[in-house]
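Supplementary Note 3. Input sequence used for the single-chain structure prediction.
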Amino acid sequence: MSLLTILGLSILIGVITILTDVREYKMHRDLPIGIFDSGIGGLTVYKELRQLLPKENIIYFGDTARAPYGSRTKEEICDFVDEIMQLMSLCSIKVGVVACNTITVLGTAMLSKNYNFELIGNNTGAVPALRDSKSKRIGVIATETTIASGKHRADILALDSRAVVFPRACPLFAQLIEAGSLEGDELRQAAYHYLTPLKEANIDTLILACTHYPYITLLLQEVMGEEVVIIDPAVETARQVQDYLAENNGLKINGEGSSHLYFSNRPEQVRDITGKFFDTTKCEFRLLDITPLARYYANNLSANASYLG
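The predicted structure, written as discrete structure tokens, is reproduced below.
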């Protein structure tokens, strides 16, 4: 891939080029926020961020060609994430948002160690769950990798040792949601299969510890009953990003923010799915294969440094 192609890509996705060498400062207000996920789930975080920070420019990448990540090995996930991080670095983002719990539990510090921007992982939802729970019996549903990490349970118990946490892996949910199956018998049967043990455990609060799950909140509420409070951590994640930018004098203060949403497969299908949940009319949905980009980045570090400068 030629340098000219890389420059053309940067223009295509609307990246704002700052003349000052980005390596000389930590943040510039007009640089974009970068959000990424294994697929379309992270758009639930994008939705909250866009509502909270309407002036910000946002670049989103969803790896829909390789989603979901939840059942993949740690090595595979790390390789995929490194490719995405290389893309985000080329886009000169001011902060990265990991809108995926499966990636977040691997550790944002480890994932960002070779890059000059901060990574904010998806919030666990522990604080709002404990705030809203009366019985302190809290359910957590997520991918296999997220549940196996024990992170949500650890965060909850660190805040309140009296809480009782009921984790439940729901691997089929993300797969069906990625395919656009947001209703139907297969999804309903999966919901009852996964959630019945939690209902029988008499939880009063349920954390959606996968960013895909808010797409099916109505079904989850139907299965669990109206008395169960459902926590979507995307709201807390968006607030974390806002707080980080404010603390670092990085909030964009002028103009309307742009939204460039990129996917490694099926961008038009993603638009159709997400159009039911938020206004997509001002969003640009594009196909982007990051694999050649990653190869270029790895083999042309000096050229890339010149481009960023």
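The first strand starts at residue 33 and ends at 37. Residues 297 and 304 are 7 Å apart (CA to CA).
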